[in-house]
Amino acid sequence: MIKFAHVIVFSTFLLTWVLGSDVGLTPVQMIEGHGYPSETHYIKTEDGYILTYYRIPHGIVDDSTSPRPTVLLQHGFISSAADYVNMGPGRSLGYILADAGYDVWLGNARGNTFSRNHTIWSPDFNKNLFFDFSWHEIGYYDYPAAIDYILNLKGDDSLYYVGHSQGTTSFLVLASTRPEYNKKIKLATLLAPAGHMGNPPNAAVKEYCMLIDEYAATWAASLIFEIPNTEAARIWGSTTCVLPVNYADCAAVYYTTMGIDITEVEPEMLPVIATNAPADAAIKELVHYGQIIKTGNFAKFDYGMMTNLMVYGSMTPPLYDLSKITAPVAFYYATNDGLLSIEDVKQTISEVSNVAGEYLVPLDAFNHYDFLFAKDVVELLYNEVVATIKKF
Ligand SMILES: *[C@@H]1O[C@H](CO)[C@@H](O)[C@H](O)[C@H]1NC(C)=O
């Protein structure tokens, strides 16, 4: 049976390669196009956002008689559920987990291309209200709503969590500010764990963030609340990058901030990535990242002294207390990650109570995006990730 499934997965992969790739497709079109089942769920948060979540309830062959354990995957900043499917079966983590016997759920954070809905506000006509959130609210409101929705639907009391980049930041927010959720997490898998971020290896990132207050003031004065030009970037990426003559430029644009070594990038996959990325997001997410990179403190949003006093009762924003995180957490990080130094990752690990494991990807060239898109990601990372999940 397992061998049969493998043959089907492999032939689907080959067929797609021959007939054309997933350029131009939404995540659901990709999933169904590869012969996997998909469901779309709308999940409402306490503060009124209506999120679009996708589900791959089982692998290409449904040969399981017992209920499948749930894995919830959350994407990074200006990204989407596409991160976990756009490299195709046998390669992207969504498919790998579905084929390994899991019930896979893919989140879309509030405000991204697929989660632009709210019970009262419009992302187009009330941008100032709709986009008034950072990754704090994504962890504090979106993730609890999703976890409760899924556990309720299945009658379960816990699930596996996987996050990449901002999907790890918001997990740290959730598990430290709503500690009652820790018992609902069997194991949290953090890929490129972005908690402490004060020492990014890419010096240009730090320089940019040293001016974040000035940028934030300019955006606020210009009434810019949403990260602009993402659609133009998607169109540019999914058309220009199809042409081999542009591969080098495209790779440079997509990867340089993420790590200088791009040996794990397959340029012909860039148009697929660019089809759904960058997805939309709030300026406040960027500003909040800028603040924690500038100050080196993994802290709540800094509104300025007076507003901080009103919101938090202190002049500076409170730090996230990672010692409140009691769920088992496995950390996966890389040497060539332009955003996350090993020093910062180690600091985050040292503050979390229940460390289930730490794993340095055994390739120096591995960068921040390679956690999703590297050509050798299965051998270098996902085999280890899946084996660790199976132990919990
Ligand atoms: C937003 O959500 C509401 C309630 O679920 C739904 O009726 C409406 O069609 C959605 N709007 C969009 C643009 O998806």
What is the CATH first-level class name? Alpha Beta
**Major pleated sheet:** 8 strands, mixed
- Parts with pLDDT < 50 across at least 5 consecutive residues: 1-5, 7-19
Mean pLDDT: 92
Order of helix and strand elements from N to C terminus: HHEEEHEHHEHEHHHHHHHEHEHH
- Overall number of strands: 8
> Distance between termini?
25 Å
- Helix fraction, binned, reads 40-55%
The name CATH uses for the topology is Rossmann fold
Structural class: alpha/beta
Radius of gyration: 20 Å
CATH superfamily: Alpha/Beta hydrolase fold, catalytic domain
CATH architecture: 3-Layer(aba) Sandwich
Tell me the β content. 5-15%
Number of structural units classed as domains: 1
Q: What are the bound molecules? A: 2-acetamido-2-deoxy-beta-D-glucopyranose
Strands side by side in the biggest sheet: 1-2-4-3-5-6-7-8
Number of helices: 16
Protein name: Lipase
Signal peptide: 1-20
Domain Partial AB-hydrolase lipase: 29-87
Active site: 165 (nucleophile), 337 (charge relay system), 368 (charge relay system)
Topology:
Blueprint: H1 2-19, H2 27-33, E1 39-44, E2 50-56, E3 70-74, H3 93-99, E4 103-106, H4 127-130, H5 135-154, E5 159-164, H6 166-177, E6 185-191, H7 203-210, H8 212-221, H9 230-240, H10 247-255, H11 270-276, H12 283-295, H13 305-312, E7 329-333, H14 342-351, E8 355-360, H15 370-373, H16 377-390
Parallel strand pairs: 3-4, 3-5, 5-6, 6-7, 7-8
Antiparallel strand pairs: 1-2, 2-4
The structure holds 2-acetamido-2-deoxy-beta-D-glucopyranose.
Active site: 165, 337, 368
GO molecular function: hydrolase activity, acting on ester bonds
GO biological process, one term: lipid catabolic process
